[in-house]
Design brief:
Distance between the termini of chain A: 67 Å
Mean pLDDT of chain A: 92
Low-confidence stretches of chain B: 9-13
Oligomer: heterodimer
Number of strands of chain A: 9
Mean pLDDT of chain B: 81
Order of helices and strands of chain B: HEEEEEEEHEHHEHEEHHH
Shape of chain A: globular
Strand content of chain B: 15-25%
Largest sheet of chain B: 5 strands, antiparallel
Structural class of chain B: alpha+beta
CATH architecture of one domain in chain B: 3-Layer(aba) Sandwich
Helix content of chain B: 25-40%
Strand content of chain A: 15-25%
Number of helices of chain B: 8
């Protein structure tokens, strides 16, 4: 009986182990670090060629907007003229082609694939940059997903997901930092991060 | 699965023979990288796994080392509508090994962390922000990039340039009417310097030096002096006075020993 009870307790508690919740730009005294205005949020679309999702370039263009890379506006729609779906080498190729088409150099960026995502996320948080990160799970979807989102906060106690499938100021998904790391590396144990190296916008001026 | 689950229920309710129960015989194990899954072990042999989010149970045959087809464990649980699960990441094309690249060029990540190449921790750098027309901004940016007068400061500035109507400066309290406006801020936003026109790289460099809280003129090296003399000449007057009093006191004690 004891074992059965344990089993039932586990099954009923399992979803709570990965608690996250949807909220606005602040929660419990914590605010977004990269507070990109909702007017600059982008909604994910499908490629014009095969309707496959464009979450990677959608996230990368949102991060570019945060970090003042105005020359990258239109990147997602330009890439959507090709087949959808992306991976690091394809991002390298498309960024090079996009910038070549506009006659400008490719802005500096870093890509990381691996298990140790926390250090880089902390550096992004400390320096105010918005990382684009893989996202393997969310209760919004009810199961495993192949997705990339923006991370506008990875500090204090909480981390936040800006999901291009749920753009807008009321659509931020909040969770613990550990929970976000689990979702970045889920389900393979390995994650993918993209970071523009341009600095973030300046803080509001004061005396 | 149903039979295994029923067996578990019956097994769980059986009285312990001779009051000796093998409480360790049934074990649920989890893995850090799979937060929504648990694995059932009976007598230390894997017998199945459950994905709580998908509500999928799969029997595992330890003899054959194979998994059965997934089945729902709680089919009447309030369900979520099936959703598309691929939003654009091609997981099968991600590297199996750890990999770090800078603009597509591989970097040996094991040698570089935590300092990522090209990604310095600039959180304590001064913020230099240029607000004005594209041509005015570009003049300053070009000098920041290449003028010798600004070379020394280049590695300590986080530089951004905006059109006056850009969201990053339009509603944050920045003055936006210069040709161009140049702000220098501490990392917390405190304004250390502001000029409403660009007067050339030398004058900007001088202003930046005065604005930099980490800049102390007295620490400037004077390579024309010998090191010892150089240090002595920087001693403040009170230090000289203290040294003189101490010296007189020592001489006085030496001449009049008690």
């Amino acid at each position: 009986m004891r074992i059965l009870s344990l089993l039932l307790v586990f099954l009923s508690a399992a979803p709570m182990n990965r608690a996250s919740f949807v909220n606005g730009r602040a929660h419990a005294g914590e605010e977004l670090t990269s507070d990109l205005p909702a007017s600059e949020h982008l909604r994910n679309i499908g490629s014009a060629v095969d309707q496959r999702g464009m979450c990677v370039m959608t996230s990368i263009e949102m991060a570019a907007r945060w970090q003042g890379l105005e020359s990258m506006r239109g990147l997602r729609d330009w890439c959507a003229k090709e087949a959808g779906g992306a991976y690091p080498a394809k991002v390298d190729r498309q960024l090079k082609a996009f910038c070549a088409s506009r006659g400008m150099p490719v802005p500096a960026y870093l890509q990381y694939e691996g298990r140790s995502v926390t250090t880089l996320l902390e550096l992004c948080e400390r320096t105010g940059r918005m990382a684009c990160i893989t996202y393997g799970y969310s209760p919004r979807y009810g199961g495993t997903i192949a997705h990339m989102i923006c991370c506008p906060k990875f500090g204090g106690r909480l981390a936040v997901c800006l999901d291009s499938n749920f753009p807008g100021e009321s659509g931020y998904e909040w969770m613990s930092r550990d929970e976000l790391v689990r979702r970045v590396t889920y389900p393979t144990g390995s994650g993918w991060l993209f970071v523009w190296l341009a600095p973030p916008p300046p803080p509001p001026p004061h005396n | 699965m149903t039979s295994l689950f029923t067996s578990l229920v019956i097994f769980a309710q059986l009285p312990c023979p001779g009051s000796k129960c093998r409480l360790n015989a049934v074990e649920w194990r989890t893995r850090g990288e799979e937060p929504n899954r648990v694995y059932l072990f009976i007598d230390w042999r894997q017998r199945g796994g459950y994905d709580a989010e998908r509500d999928e149970w799969r029997d595992f045959d330890p003899e054959a080392g194979s998994w059965a087809e997934p089945r729902p464990l709680l089919p009447r649980r309030p369900g979520r509508a099936p959703v598309s699960t691929d939003f654009g990441v091609m997981r099968d094309r991600l590297a199996a090994e750890e990999r770090l690249t800078l603009n597509g060029q591989p970097i040996d990540s094991t040698d570089t962390r935590p300092a990522y190449p090209g990604f310095p921790d600039d959180s304590q750098w001064l913020r230099l922000t240029i607000i004005g027309s594209a041509a005015d901004r570009q003049t300053v940016l070009d000098d920041l990039q290449s003028h010798p007068a600004l070379a020394e400061l280049r590695g300590r500035l986080a530089v951004q340039a905006y059109d006056p109507e850009h969201w990053a400066v339009a509603a944050s309290g920045f003055v936006r009417t210069g040709k161009p406006i140049i702000y220098v801020q501490a990392p917390d936003g405190r304004v250390l310097h502001r000029q409403d026109a660009y007067r050339g790289p030398e004058r900007l460099a001088a202003a930046l030096r005065r604005a930099d809280p980490d800049y102390h003129a007295e620490r400037d090296p004077d390579l024309d002096q010998t090191p010892v003399l150089s240090r002595l000449t920087r001693l403040p007057a009170w230090a000289w006075a203290g040294a003189a009093i101490l010296s007189l006191s020592l001489i006085s004690r030496w001449r009049n020993p008690r």
